[in-house]
Amino acid sequence: MVPYWSYDPIIEWGWLKVHAFGVLVAIGILVGSWVTLRRAKERDIDELHLRSAITWLLVGGFVVAHLFTIVAYEPEKIAADPLVLLRVWEGLSSTGGFLGAFIGLYLYCRRYDVPFGPYADVVALGLLPGWMFGRAGCYTAHDHPGYLTDFPLAVAYPGGARHDLGFYELLFTVAMFIGFEVLRRKWKTVPPGRIAILIGLVYSPVRFGLDFLRITNKDPSGLHGDVRYLGLTPAQYAFILLFTICVYLLLRPKRAEPVALNASKPSGRKTAKAR
Fold first, then answer.
1. Are 239 and 204 in contact, with CB atoms under 8 Å apart?
2. Domain that holds residue 169
3. What is the pLDDT of residue 269?
4. Residue 261 falls within a domain, yes or no?
5. Alpha-carbon distance 4 to 120, whole Å?
6. Contacts 24+ apart (CB under 8 A), 174-180
7. Would 272 be classed as within a structural domain?
8. Which of 12, 50, 116, 151 has its CA 20 to 30 Å from the CA of residue 4?
């Protein structure tokens, strides 16, 4: 059984409270951005463009993460206080964060006429190590409690051992990171966007399945659970859509030539000035 570790807050000084979750998420953003930039060098992607694109996807990720939380999980708050939609720090959904990051990156690529596929690949590769820190933060906050269980990897919650979806996803993301690092080192060329598509295909069904272990918002334990619509959480519907899109993109006719990984020489391609 896994111990119920909680460091909340780790620093408290008057009105200032620093939570382990926030610290780990911040570390995850920094690590993910650093890995993304490292992987971009292997593909000769313009660094200035990529730095600007990362800003766009982070802003889009945080905004949509909040909106998805309120609209999909807590719509009753809108009627009570419509301004809750503007307070982006009050509730964040990882599913909404993925959606917002995708929208932000797509809009940037369209705005500055840069190829979406290679950018999506390096961002996805950077997301994996960053996501490990994010889910480690979820484990310290224990904000994804599951049902009572005697499963060996259950977390010893007060009142009984439970599935902890944040902890499970942390373990799965570590496995994904190792697996895709092995593949990345073996592949010499890859079609643009293929890595991002494969990561989506692997992650979606696992996340879909894990949500069945999550308690509902009516659980008698009083812990924070998820709302259900026709038996499924909003995240499950979102990942059904993501999986479907990834299958379509994987099977559609090839539109671009494979690009080399571990590029050692500049391609000579001119790029517009990043903004």
1. yes
2. 20-252
3. 41
4. no
5. 36
6. 174/132, 176/128, 176/202, 176/203, 177/128, 177/129, 177/132, 180/125, 180/128
7. no
8. 12
- Tell me the CA distances in angstroms from 274 to 49, 125, 262, one per residue in order: 5, 22, 23
- For residue 213, CA distances in Å to 56, 149, 216, 226 come to 33, 10, 9, 10
CA distance 18 to 9: 6
Tell me, yes or no, whether 44 lies in a domain: yes
In this structure, is residue 15 part of a structural domain? no
Token couple for 115: 């190829």
Residue 17 φ/ψ, nearest 5 degrees: -130, 120
| Average predicted confidence (pLDDT) for the chain | 89
Q: Report the alpha-carbon distance of residue 70 to residue 91 in Å, rounded.
A: 8
How many domains, in total, are found in the chain?
A: 1
Residue that has been written with the tokens 């996805």 in this structure: 124
